[in-house]
Amino acid sequence: MNSIEKLIKQQPEDWSLKQEFYKQTDIYELEIKKIYMDSWLFIGHQSEIPNKGDYFVYNLLSESVIVVRGKDQQIHGYMNVCRHRGSRICLEDRGNMQRFTCPYHAWTYNLDGSLMIAKELSNGVKKQDLGLHKCQIEVVEGLILLNFSDQPSSLDDLKNELSVPMNMFGFKDLKIAAHKNYPIDANWKLAVENYNEWKITTNAIIVLLRIQSIHNPILRS
Predict the structure, then answer these.
(1) Which domain holds residue 187?
(2) Residues 53, 65: one domain?
(3) Final residue of a structural domain among 152, 175, 202
(4) What is the value of pTM for the model shown?
(5) Is residue 207 part of a domain?
(6) Does residue 171 lie in a domain region?
(7) Burial annotation 150-159 (CB, 10 A radius, 16+ → b, else e)
(8) CB atoms within 10 A of CB 117
(9) Which residues have CB under 8 Å from 60's CB, separation 6+?
(10) How many domains is the chain built from?
(11) Mean pLDDT, 10 residues at a time, over the chain (221 residues)?
(12) Do 96 and 55 touch, CB atoms closer than 8 A?
């Protein structure tokens, strides 16, 4: 039995998490994988990018995503990483672009993520195979949601449950009045627990860790 499995087994139900859940690196890495990289994340509102070519960059840990309104007037997400040498493409937090050009070797991409211009491509290398990596984006009543997973969970239940109250309060017509960041020198769960009902938060985290621990052979070795 590995350390995570042991901690989960020893965790009393409906009690605060033990100290190890906040301090162990392997637990933190597992949380990133199973919660942040495999869940729908609220990242903005459609009013932030009303026009074709409007974009903003969303950064989470080592990941960077370009969120842009395309020529089709839909909102799309692409990894902010050039397919040539891995450089960041958008260096500004937000703006408007007709196309995205990497500042390193000037590889240029259309708003739909397809590669438009690339110098000195080797013979046999096709531009259509080198578009930006796409991210899963959904817009629910004006709220922009991002999922890093290639096979994200369905949002149908969320839409069914929240469409009426969100429509009632006019979520689609909301505007961003201010945007502030508050860096916290603490484990992320402490902030979440203080905002939400602690019992729901701690029990949900235990369930996620337990599922991953049971089904991940690496953790069980």
Answers:
(1) 3-39+183-220
(2) yes
(3) 152
(4) 0.84
(5) yes
(6) no
(7) eebeeeeeee
(8) 13
(9) 36, 41
(10) 2
(11) 79 84 91 92 96 97 97 97 95 96 95 92 85 96 95 92 91 90 86 67 52 42 34
(12) yes
